[in-house]
Amino acid sequence: MDVRVRSNITFTGRDHGPVVMLSHGFGCDQNMWRQVTAKLGEQSRLLLFDHVGAGRSDLTAWDPARYASLDGYARDVLEICRDLDLRDVIFVGHSVSAMIGVLAVAEEPDRFAGLVLLTPSPCYIDEGDYRGGFTHDDIDELLESLDSNYLGWSAAMAPVIMGNPDRPELGQELTDSFCRTDPTIAKAFARVTFLSDQRADLPRVRVPTLVLQSAVDAIAPPEVGAYVSAHIPGSRLVTLDAIGHCPQLSAPQATAQAITSFVAECR
Amino acid sequence: MLEDDIDDLYDTAPCGNLSTLLDGTIAKINVTLLDWLGYTRDEVVGRKRFSDLLTVGGRLYHETHFAPLLQMRGEINGIALDLRCADGSRMPVLVTSTVKTGGDGQPLLIRTTIFDARERRAYERELLYASKQAEAERERLRELVAELQHSLLPDPLPTPPRMQVGAYYHMASTDRIGGDFYDLFPLDGGRWGFFLGDVCGKGPVAAATTAAARYTLRTAAAYEPEPAAVLAHLNSVLYQGYHSRSHRHCTVVFGILTPTASGYSVTIAGGGHPAPMLLRADGTVEAQPTTGGTLIGSLRKPNIATRTFSVAAGDTLLLYSDGLPEARTGPGTDRYGEEALRTFLAQLTPTSAPVAVEALTGLLGTLERLDDDVALMALSFDGTGSDD
Description:
- With about 270 residues, chain A is of the alpha/beta class.
- Chain A has helices spanning about 5, 35-40, 70-85, 95-105, 135-150, 170-175, 185-195, 220-230, 245-250, 250-265; strands spanning about 10-15, 20-25, 45-50, 90-95, 110-120, 210-215, 235-245.
- Chain A has one domain: Rossmann fold.
- Chain A is built from 10 helices and 7 strands.
- Chain A has a 7-stranded mixed beta sheet with strand order 1-3-2-4-5-6-7.
- In chain A, about 50% of the residues are buried.
- Helix content of chain B is about 35%, strand content about 30%.
- Chain B contains 9 helices and 15 strands.
- In chain B, a hairpin with a 4-residue loop joins strand 1 and strand 2.
C-alpha cells in the first residue's frame, strides 16, 4: 500500500531544506502542528502525517495486531522514510509519538539526524520509585471518558461549525475530522499509549536529541521530562514557558523557536 | 414583566458558570458550581485551573481532545466529563465552552457552562451497558452458528484411492445457519458414496433437517446399492413430517463411485438439484443432469432420475448448490447464471478438484452479493494414487 495514502502524508515548507517529520500524539491528528508549520517551514521541508487510525489516514489499514504496541507505529515511521527515500530526517514527536520516535531512531539510527521529543513520557503509570503520574484506575477512567464521548463520530455529537471566521484557512472538512476517530481505534490507541513502558529504550537513542517540555503539564510533568533527558545520552532538556500538554498550541512561537534552533544545530 | 436580576441570574443559574484565562486558570465562577464542588470562591479563583476540577481520566481527555478542539474551533459542545468535588465524590456533567475574543480577534478568555448530568449519565451508562451486552450476545451467536455449521460438514473430506478431492462452504449469513450439505464416505467393495444437497430455508429447523438428511443418506447407502433407492429413503423420512411445522424439503444429488479398470463408474440420482458438471481431461465440459427428478420430501412418491457415466484420469466432477448461479453480479437483479458458470468452467478445464474449488472460491469473492449459502464439492481422478 502507498504510505502516502495510508498515513495521509502532506509536505510543506522549503523544498530543499532539511526534512523535519512532525508526528502527532494521541487524540487528534497532524493539524495539531498548524500553529508552528509556517515558522518551521521557513528553513525546513516539513513532512506531516496521520497515524493509521487517526485523522484522515486509511482506516482500513488499521490492524489490531500491528498496532497493539508502539512498535507497529514505529514501523510505519520507518516505512515512510524508506518508501520516500528520506535521509538525515529530524523526527519531532509529540506526546506518545515521542516514544514512537525513540523506537524508530533506535532501530535505524542512520536514517535520522536528530530527534525532538515534545512533552514525552516513557511510562505514564507509577511503578516503584518511578513517578509517571498515573495509576491503572486513572487510565480506566480515561477509557470511560472515551466511551461517553464518541467525539464527532456519532452524528448526534458532531457540532455544526459554521466555518472558522478567525482562520479561514481551516476548511470545514479539516475541522470536522480533527480529533475524530472510530471509538474502537481510539480506545485501542489510548491503551497502547498509556499502558506502554519504553523506559528501557531511552538509552538506545544514539542521535542528537532535544527534550522539550511544558512548565506545567498534567500528562507529562517536569520530572518525567527530566527522567527522559537523563536517560538519553547527550540529550538536552529545554523547559518552555508553556502550560498544558500541547505547547505547539498554547505557546507556538516558543515551541517553533526551540525546534528551529535545534534543526539548525543538526545540519 | 418581571425583571430578573442579572447578577443573581449569573450566580444561581440552574447551571455552572465559569470563566477561565487561556491557560485554564479560573477567573470567575458562580455559586451553583461552587455548591456542586463544595469549594469556596477563594479556594479556586486564581488558584485552580479548569482541568484541576476534573477526575484524572477527564483531565487526560481534556488535554488530548477538549483543549485542542476548543483551540481550533473556538467552541466545543456537550462534552461528558466528571467533576471531582472537594469531598472526593464525582459528579457527572456536560460541558460547553466558547472562546471570547477581543476586538482584534485575539482570544481573551474561555467561557464555560456546566450542566448537571447525573441522571442522564446513569441512563447513558445503562444504554452503553445494554449495547455492550447485545454486542457480546451477537458475537456468541456468530460463534455458535459457525461451529454448528462446521459440525454439519465433514472435515476433512476423506480421499478415495487415485482421486483428489476439494470442498468449500460459504456462509451467506453470520447469524443464521444455512441448509447446504455434502459428504463423501467409503462403502463396501471399494465403492464410495457422495452427495451434495440444499435444504430449503435457513435457521435451526433447516439445520436439524440438514443433519437428518446427512445421516439418513449415509445409513441408507450402507444397505441400498442403488442411488435412487437411497434418495427414496430420504424422501420417506422427510415426507413423514410433511404436515408438521418443522417440515422441510431439499434438493440433492446422491452418487456412488464404483472402481473400474480405468477409473470409476459413477451413478448419480437427483431430486431437483442443479446438474453436476463433468470437466473432462480433453477440455470439454459436460453437464450431467438428472432431469425429471422432483424435490425430496415434498411428494409421497417422488420422481428420482438416475444416470451413469464413467470418469478417467484427468476428469473432475463438480457438484454445487444453487447459491452459486443465483449470486448477484451487480447492484441490480442480475444473477450470475448457469451460462456464465459454464463459460467459467470451460476456461478452467482440464483441471483438478483442489484447483477447481480454489478457482470457484475466488470467483465467489468477485461476485457482488451472495444471498444464499454456497456448497462446492469436486472429485477428480488423477491416476497417480494407489489402490491401498
